[in-house]
Amino acid sequence: MEITGAQPGYFDLEYYRRIQRIVGSWMELDEISSDDQPPAEVAEECRALLLHEARLIDRHQLDDWLDLFTDDAAYWLPADASQLDPASTVSWEFNDRRRMEERVERILTGKAYSQIPPTRTTHCYTNIELLAVSENEVHALCNFILNTHRPKGGRLLSGWNGFILRCEEGRWLIELKRVNLLDADAPQGNLSFFL
Amino acid sequence: MLKEAAKNSVTYAEHVYDDYFGEGRVHRALYTDAEIFKHEMLRLFGSTWIYVAHESEIPDAGDFVTRRMGLRSVIVTRDLDGDLHVLFNRCSHRGATLCREESGNAKVFTCPYHAWSFGHDGGCRGRPLPKGFGASTDDFPYDLSKADHVESYRGFIFAAIDTKLSLKEHLGGAAEKLDEWLDRNPGSDLVVQNGSMPFEMRTNWKCVYDNAADGYHVPFSHESLLRMLSARYGNVDIAYYEGDFDALPLLVKDLGNGHTMLDQRPLMHADSAWERQHVLPGRESIWSKLNEDLGEEEALKLLNGSTGSGMNLNIFPNLMIIGNQIQVLEPVSVNETIVRWYSTSLTNVPPEINAVRMRMQEDFPSFGEVDDTANFEACQIGLEEIPEAEWVHIGRHMDSRLGETDTDGFWKEPVSTDLHARAYWQAWRTIMESNEGGKA
User: Fold this and answer.
1) Most CB atoms within 10 A, among A58, A63, B294, B372?
2) Cross-chain Cβ contact A88/B231 below 8 Å
3) Distance, in angstroms, between A62 CA and closest chain B CA?
4) In the structure, what pLDDT confidence band is assigned to residue B110 with cuts at 50, 70 and 90?
5) What is the average pLDDT value for chain B, to the nearest integer?
6) Is B371–A98 a contact, with Cβ atoms under 8 angstroms apart?
7) Which residues of A touch B328 (CB under 8 A)?
8) Per-domain residue ranges for chain B?
9) CB-hemisphere CA count at 13 Å for B387?
10) Are the beta carbons of B146 and B76 closer than 8 angstroms?
11) Which residue did the predictor score with more confidence, B163 or B3?
12) Nearest Cα residue in chain A from B353
């Protein structure tokens, strides 16, 4: 099978350093002045992108969900709550675009027993804050409440997300979704869906 | 009088489990009966060697981590002389949890309740307002209780509350297999300071352990992984699990004392394990960087040494080594278990190698462990809900006469055997039915 548009080579040490710098800047963020905020029109598009992203997961439209990400995207679910270096720390998931596609394909085989039936989710994104980095790059932070249901009981997850959003040919896409679970370092149940 | 009574209350009851075992089968109650679970936590996890931590987690004097021996919270410490101790994490005064942190470095451990303090060896170092203590309680056990036996084998720290065996005797054949696992990278030491993934599951701990050298489930439980891989990449990774996979040079070994191994090295490492392996994030960029820096031959040698070991080495009752990870079983209740996957790295290798190891160690948990967990939980449901169906089958290859003694002297059987389950249940009975020792 063709690797659809993915650039398989971008997870190197320089990439980890860059992503760590960005996550670090989110942790130290103070007030976001009006100068640091994107223009109203861009802000509106970015907010709409986040809500669209949440809705597609909740509707199990995973192929469409993948279309919201760049070719050099990452989905990151750390297993620590201290922003440790991903070059020397294991995460629950640190997927490049190819790994995201593989996980979607695995679920769609109909033989992924951890997702039979699929985990039902309700994503609520709140406290959305936007930070304009350049004309084509916006960082978005939000809190989330994520209710999940499985036949033998569900769990209520929460935390905050950090997104790197990038404008490519006039369309805003997600370059990074980092999901910071409140209890990322605590024992977790079934996380085989996308949070 | 009181002392004797207190002692008797922790003497292990004599148990005989004859009714729970038959030819190639074990009874469901072993997985569902809360009384048996209580006995396991007291007896099994109280009178054999239990893996508690790796020395690289507490490299310096005063370092500690808190862990569990069955349900007992323990503090694993390194004292100022470098000696290791495994202390019960319970203040000798009123019983409060003494250390409430997962790891750190401490001069003394001070109880937050009345500030009694204890050294790295558990000795009581201070009790505020000392004039209040007199002769009547001079014989009170002021020092912390602890595991009397603490030994380390090549960095793996084990503790036992009550055993007659040395660690080396207990490990038996598992020690040389652990050597093989550790000696894949000459000149590098193993480091266990790279985070962990603690999976919580609603199942008895033995539903997990049953699977630890179960080559039978692979193409069925992991069909989604195998289908996705072969659709994308063809014959890679564990794609050899198809058809009559018992005919392949894969095997399960009985290493004695309940320890076992599933060995996939003859196929996984037949050529380059790295080249055969499922792609991972950063594979191409890091491979080409290492080729540039070290040359192709040296790069491939390092990458092969950090690719999944092809061994599932199980040290009864709570340690399972898989790929490059150290998996530790933490029973919580009769139907709740935490399986913690500790990630590992190496000293004296380029940082790219350890970065590859991190992404590789996210691979099987994400694509495989999740489906295994679904099946472990499904087993528990079936065992709990249907009392009329009493037995669990562990009889594969009992009669096929395909087993033989391997060149290393250990008994081996084809990969779909239940040899692992039969071997560990035998060790389970030996410990659980023994009348020896018997004081916690």
Assistant:
1) B372
2) no
3) 16
4) very high
5) 94
6) no
7) none
8) 50-162, 174-432
9) 1
10) no
11) B163
12) A87
Number of helices (H), then strands (E), belonging to chain B: the values are: 16, 24
Q: Does the pLDDT at position A8 exceed 90?
A: no
CA nearest A182: which of A170, A195, A167?
Answer: A195
> Cα separation of A155 and A182, whole Å?
13
pLDDT tens by residue, A22-78: 999 999 999 999 999 999 999 999 999 999 999 999 999 999 999 999 999 999 999
Of B195, B281, B285, which has the smallest distance from its Cβ to A79's Cβ? B195
Q: Pick from B194, B232, B371: which is nearest to A89 by CB?
A: B194
Asked if the Cβ–Cβ distance from B200 to A189 is below 8 Å, we say yes
Nearest to B289 among A12, A94, A189 (CB): A12
pLDDT score of B200 more than 60: yes
Domain ranges of chain A: 39-181
Return the exposure string of A83-112: e unless at least 16 CB atoms fall within 10 Å of the residue's CB, then b.
ebbbbbbbbbbbbbbbbbbbbebbbbeebb
Whether A158 shows a pLDDT value over 70: the answer reads: yes
Cβ distance of A89 and B375 shorter than 8 Å: no
Contact flag B223-A109 (C-beta cutoff 8 Å): yes
* CATH classification number, B174-432, choose in 3.40.50.300, 3.90.380.10, 3.40.50.150, 3.30.70.3090: 3.90.380.10
A134 strand-pairing partners: A137
Taking contacts as CB-CB distances below 8 angstroms, the residues of chain A near B288 are: 9
Please name the residue of chain B whose CA is at the shortest distance from the CA of residue A6: B281
Closest chain A residue to the Cα of B370, Cα to Cα: A114
Q: Which fold has domain A39-181?
A: Nuclear Transport Factor 2; Chain: A, (3.10.450)
Q: In the structure encoding, which two tokens stand for residue B380, read together? A: 């528990």
CA distance linking residue B419 with residue B250, whole number of Å: 13
Taking CA–CA distances from A87, the nearest residue in chain B reads B355
Task: Give the number of other Cβ atoms within 10 Å of residue A169's Cβ.
Answer: 5
For residue range B137-170, what is the model confidence (pLDDT) as tens digits? 999 999 999 999 999 999 999 999 999 999 999 9
Residue of B nearest to A113 (CA): B371
Residue A99 pLDDT class (50, 70, 90 cuts) = very high
